[in-house]
Amino acid sequence: MPDAHAAPGDPVKLVALGDSLTAGYRLPADAAFPTVLERLLKAKGEDVIVANAGVSGDTATGGLDRVDWSVPDGTAGVILELGANDMLRGTDPKVTAGALSAIIERLKARGIPVLLAGMQAAPNLGPDYKARFDAIYPALAERYGLTLYPFFLDGIVGDRAQHLDDMLHPNRQGVETIAARMLPTVETFLGGLRQGASR
Asked: What is the DSSP track for 139-178?
């Protein structure tokens, strides 16, 4: 396989592979999560490009179906944000975990590290489902040795001021909050990519 790491002096290319939360549902392009994250990283001196591979409505299985062409050669790392739609549909957590695992395996085979963005089930799905679903992400991170950001929506849940009127998707301010909270974890991930590339 081609070397997944950028040549010295080139920007580090990340791909955000996700659903509507990544795609920027009902938001202008400059307010979508990958664009906001890239802006914040550049403000910290990081030479990085964050590509938006978010597809509204995508499930973990949908992400698996398109991972090979959504993540081009030359990608240094992937931010994997999938599972919210599985949860909203009440998909068996085993199905979600299996699809996410297969995505990680595909990327691993290409030498592309993954930052896993966790999701949590809504309480109205019941305690058993919530416990099984919420456990998916820490278990996968431990199994594959991944950088884990425990909950993608941390900091905005239940806050009407940071959501669109559907109370499911972040508005412009909500995306800013998500990206700012996730920034230290992404910086740690980038540091690991550099160490791997210099070995």
From this structure: HHHHHHT-EEES-TTTTTTT-GGGB-TTSSSB-HHHHHHH
Using alpha carbons, select from 182, 177, 157 the residue that is nearest to residue 84. Answer: 157
- Whole-model pTM? 0.94
Contact 171/128 with Cβ under 8 angstroms? no
Output phi, psi for 194, to 5 deg. -65, -40
* Cα 17 from Cα 88, distance rounded (Å): 19
Give residue 2's pLDDT: 38
pLDDT at 194: 86
Contact by Cβ (8 Å): 196, 113: yes
First-last CA distance in the chain: 18
Query: How many whole angstroms separate alpha carbon 74 and alpha carbon 143?
Result: 25
DSSP state of 119: -
User: Which residues of the chain, if any, have pLDDT below 50?
Assistant: 1-6
Residues with a known catalytic role: 20, 166, 169
